[in-house]
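Run folding on both entries below.
>entry_1
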Amino acid sequence: MRQKRKAISPIIATLILIVITVVAGIFLYGFVSGYMGMLSTTTSAPPDVQITPVSYAIGNNTISGALEVTITNAGSSSVSIYPTGSFYFSNGTLAGSATLGTISYSTSSTGTSTVTFTPLTSLTLAPGKTTVVIIELSPSPSNYSVTSGYSYYIKLTTTSGYTITSQTFSP
C-alpha cells in the first residue's frame, strides 16, 4: 500500500524563501555597516610634543634628583599631560617614577636658602607653546640612584592616551 505524501504548498514555500532572504539581508547589512563603521572611524593624530632635558641637579641648592626639561607642543591642538610618569634606563629597564612640578627658592631671615618642589596637578600646552618644568625622579626600588655615566629617558602620557618619550639624558 502506498502512502500519499503531503508537501507544502508552493505559496508557503515561496514565503519561507522570502523570509530567509530578508533575514540574511538584514544580517549582511548589519555586518557590513559595522565593518565599514570600524574602517571609517577617525582617530586623532598623535600629539607632536617634544621633551628635551636641559639640566640634571644632584644637590647644591637644588632639588636632589631633579631634571629640568622643556616640553614643546609643536602640534596644532592643545595637549594635556598627566603630571606623573616613569623614567627608564636607556636599555628600557624601569628606573622609577617621574613627577612634574616647579621649584621655588626662598631665603630665611637667618640667610638659610630653601628649595621647594611643588608637584603640578595638571599640564596643558597650547599649540606652538613651550614650557620649562622640573621633573623629580624617584628611583625604584629605593636603593637605585640616578647615576652619572648611565643614560635615561622619561615617558609621560597625555590624557588622550598617547605616550611621549623624552630624548635620553645622562646626569
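>entry_2
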Amino acid sequence: MTATLGCILTAFIAGLPASLSLGTAGDAIAAPTSTQQAEAAEPGVGDSLVTPTLHADTEAFVPGATTWVAIRLRIEPGWHVYWDGDNDTGMPLSVKWTLPRGWEAGPLLWPAPHRYISPGDILDHVYEDEVVVLTSIRVPETAVPERRVGVSADLSWLVCKDVCLPEDATV
C-alpha cells in the first residue's frame, strides 16, 4: 500500500493547482472558487508555522463519482507535524469536513513519515517541510449538476520544534 500511495501522491502532486478552484465542466457540479488557503495563527506571533491548502484532482465534482482531494501542509523549516500512527508524543492532523448533504469523505491516506527520535529515546513519526494527505469525496448520484457547492475542511494539528504549538485553519 505504501508504494502505491507514494505513486498516487507523486502523480497527484505533479498536477496540483496553486489552489482549489473548480469550475463547471459538462454535467458536473461546480465547487468553490475561493483560494481555499488558510493562514493559521501561531499564538503571540500572528504568522503560521504551517500553511494548509486544499486541492482536487479534477475541475468539477461529478454526480455518482469520486474525486480525490489533497490537503497540503507547508511546514516552516526546522518544524514538524505528526503522522497519524504509532507515536510516543504529538497530535496528527485532524480534519472535519463540511460537505453538502449526502456527500461522503473517505479516510485520510498518509504518505510514509520520517522517524524522529528525541532525547530519552522518544520515538515519533513526523513530516518536515511539506506533507500531502489524500482523501476521496464521493458525490451522490442524486446531486444536481451545474450547481455551485461549498466544500471545506476545519483542520487542526500540532507543530513542534523545541516546543509544540497547536494550530488550526479552515480551508
